[in-house]
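Data availability (excerpt). All sequences and predicted token strings are deposited with the supplementary files. A representative entry, EF-hand domain-containing protein, is shown inline so that the format can be inspected without opening the archive.
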Amino acid sequence: MMTLDTATQVYRILKQPDLKYLTQEDFKPVLRELLATHPGLEFLQSTPEFQERYAETVIYRIFYYTNRSGNGRLTLRELKRGNLIDAMQHADEEEDINKVLRYFSYEHFYVIYCKFWELDTDHDFLIDKENLIRYGNHALTYRIVERIFSQVPRKFTSKVEGKMGYEDFVYFILSEEDKSSEPGLEFWFRCIDLDGNGVLTRNELQYFYEEQLHRMECMAQEPVLFEDILCQIIDMIGPENESYITLHDLKGSKLSGSVFNILFNLNKFMAFETRDPFLIRQERENPTLTEWDRFAHREYIRLSMEEDVEDASNGSAEVWDESLEAPF
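Structure token line:
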């Protein structure tokens, strides 16, 4: 008798009988079980609202990386191609949930949620363009934020006109902080491909870079002219045809994420231009970590330090203060 592989077994257990795919809803029992039994998540049992947020975030992350068609219907083929089954086994065996970097890390959830909370100033669980422009210390250009809100790269699940919901933000932050991942590359490619013809042309690159150039001039920094940038981008990517760049070209280069930073993230562009030695050292020390892993680690430390300072000034050691619980 043929034994089924683990992915097929998991797929059959979770799937609704009348469907040929998995939905986000199908993963909720898995997360409920994990939250009820995992020693690394026990401390959340007194705050059910955060259990819910954690579970939601994990499911969004699973679909971001695994559901490559982006239609919310996770097929058996996608499940087998991804690394979710390995991650689930890792979570099962590892007592420290934060060592399970794929999907399940509590620290990663904490960073995503705090970043959302910092931008969502009126705490209505929605973010508009003006909120998002403040992301990463005003790192992004207006043009790229406009493009995200055009919903061409990805349709928002938020039902409110002109607003991005929490799920939409999770997709954004994973794309922004892990630009070299496949879903990240695809997201930003669709943003830059203004006419949707599947190639990035000189005009499209220039449209986004113009604002970077203007910002450099405003900050009295030596501007790097577009002609020079275009040569640099062609060198970095090495496209099959030098008159345009395809998604295939980008996926074949290790420097694709940096190309997007050059076009619309000034802070990361500057760090790239100066070859920040701190970031280079980090990469050498832990080559297996993704850009996202490194970002989440740095941010978690920063957020923990801020919280320690607040606790000291308030004389309180509560994990969450009341303001953080406000949206529920």
